[in-house]
Specification:
Layout (H helix, E strand, L loop, with lengths): L1 E4 L20 E4 L12 E5 L8 E4 L3 E3 L10 E3 L2 H10 L14 E6 L12 E2 L6 E5 L5 E5 L1 E2 L2 E6 L2 E7 H9 L4
Parallel strand pairs: 6-13
Antiparallel strand pairs: 1-2, 1-5, 2-3, 3-4, 7-12, 8-11, 9-10, 12-13
Length: 177
C-alpha cells in the first residue's frame, strides 16, 4: 500500500535509518518478514512496492495515500495558513518540489489579474469575455464576466482547492517573520 511522509524523518534522529526520508516522499508498506526488528511505534516500509530492503518509519510520520483520494468539496483558500495546511494534507514538501509525485496539477482560470484577497471578484459584467469558476459546492459554472484570476489545485485530476492568483504572489513575496 502507498504512503506519503507527512514530516521529515532524519537519520540523525533515528539511528537505524541509513538515509533521510523527507516530507512528501512516497513509501510502500512492507508485508514480508521483519524478524522482530520493527518497534511498536513504527511500521516497515520500502522505497519500491514489495521490493526489499525494508526500513522502519515512525507510524505518525506517514499517511495512507488513498486516504487523500476521498471525494471532498473544493476548498476556497483565502489565508496563507490555509494554503500551508493544504500543502501538508496533500503531502507536499515545504518548498513544493516535485508536486507531480503527489499527483498535483494546477489550472489557472479567470481573466483579470488585479487584486489579492478578492474571491473571485466579478466586475465589469458587461464585458464579453468568458470565465470558468467553481461554485461553493465544487460545480463548474461558465458565464460572461470579468473574474479575478485564480488557481485550481487538483490531486489525481480532481479539484481540491482554489486560491486567488494575486494572493499566491503576495504570500510568496512576503518575508517570513
Amino acid at each position: 500500500m502507498k504512503y506519503i511522509l507527512i514530516r521529515d524523518v532524519l537519520a540523525k534522529d533515528h539511528h537505524w535509518l541509513s538515509e533521510d526520508h523527507r516530507k512528501g516522499d512516497i513509501v510502500y508498506s512492507y508485508g514480508g518478514a521483519t524478524y522482530g526488528c520493527i518497534t511498536e511505534q513504527g511500521a516497515a516500509f520500502t522505497k519500491e512496492d514489495g521490493i526489499p530492503p525494508f526500513f522502519e518509519l515512525p507510524s505518525d510520520s506517514v499517511m495512507r495515500r488513498d486516504s487523500l483520494l476521498v471525494k471532498r468539496k473544493v476548498v476556497r483558500i483565502i489565508e496563507k495558513e490555509q494554503f500551508e495546511a493544504l500543502a501538508l494534507e496533500l503531502g507536499m514538501r515545504d518548498d513544493w518540489h516535485e508536486p507531480d509525485e503527489q499527483e498535483i496539477t494546477v489550472e489557472v482560470r479567470g481573466n483579470n489579474f488585479d487584486n489579492a484577497g478578492f474571491w473571485p471578484e466579478t466586475h465589469a459584467a458587461g464585458q464579453t469575455k468568458i470565465a470558468k469558476t467553481f461554485t461553493a459546492g465544487g460545480q463548474e459554472e461558465i458565464f460572461p464576466q470579468v473574474i479575478e484570476m485564480f488557481v485550481v489545485i487538483k490531486q489525481d485530476k480532481q479539484p481540491v482547492a482554489i486560491v486567488n492568483l494575486a494572493s499566491l504572489c503576495a504570500w510568496a513575496s512576503t518575508p517570513s517573520r
